[in-house]
Design goal:
This protein is mainly alpha-helical. Helices cover 51% and strands 6% of the residues. The chain has helices spanning 39-55, 57-60, 66-81, 92-109, 120-127, 133-149, 154-160, 185-193, 195-203, and strands at 13-14, 17-18, 24-27, 30-33. The strands form two sheets. It has a two-stranded antiparallel ribbon. Helix 1 (39-55) packs parallel to helix 4 (92-109) and helix 6 packs antiparallel against helix 9.
Length: 207
């Protein structure tokens, strides 16, 4: 598989046989796409999360205290949601989809139907929560990226897009780090060199 806006055909042979070029494939549980985006992987993760929640539905809707239920959700459901999220390229539509799933979970946790006509704010107030799934994903991404930026290796080269040749003018491509940037890339790079400062950055509330 070749990643790019318009991936060209490549020919790789092993023992005289041409390897099939694919649009996407699953690697270590995550779906990699030739577009470089994570939309398909996020969609699949959300379906897996809903399945994980439904398997726990009897337990989560019993007479447990709300705090215990929420802890179970964050431990057993969120972990499915965030698998591999450190490398996601999150577009606006993906962020909306993840936030909608988070509200979906809280509504079902308190046995609330859509016909109850409660707003998302009212749901969050009822379960005494704030939107936190995206913030936790971004914290994970920052931990991962901080580690990458402190080492001069292939991962950093790929992250920074250091490639030979001149890129043509075209619409800006959404990158893996775009949703966690709080300044310029150079500023983020300098902060990452100081582990303590970067750790404080990770723990701050992110937009």
């Amino acid at each position: 598989m070749k990643i790019g806006r318009k991936p060209s055909t490549i020919k790789l042979t092993v023992d005289g046989e041409i390897l099939q070029q694919v649009e996407e494939f699953k690697y270590l549980g995550s779906i990699l796409s030739s577009s470089g985006y994570s939309e398909k992987d996020i969609r699949v993760r959300i379906e897996m999360e809903k399945s994980a929640f439904n398997k726990l539905k009897k337990l989560l809707t019993k007479g447990l205290k709300l705090e215990v239920k929420k802890r179970l959700v964050k431990t057993l459901v969120w972990s499915v949601a965030m698998y591999g999220s450190e490398t996601w390229t999150i577009k606006k539509a993906d962020a909306t989809r993840l936030e909608a799933f988070e509200i979906w979970v809280w509504r079902r946790l308190v046995k609330m139907k859509l016909t109850d006509k409660k707003s998302n704010a009212e749901v969050l107030n009822l379960v005494k929560e704030k939107k936190s799934l995206l913030a936790e994903i971004r914290k994970r991404k920052r931990r991962c990226i901080g580690h990458i930026l402190r080492h001069e290796d292939m991962l950093r080269t790929v992250l920074e897009g250091r490639m030979k040749g001149k890129l043509p003018r075209r619409r800006k491509i959404i990158k893996m780090v775009d949703d966690i940037m709080t300044g310029t890339y150079a500023q983020m790079n300098r902060r990452a060199e100081d582990r303590e400062e970067w750790r404080r950055d990770v723990m701050r509330d992110l937009p």
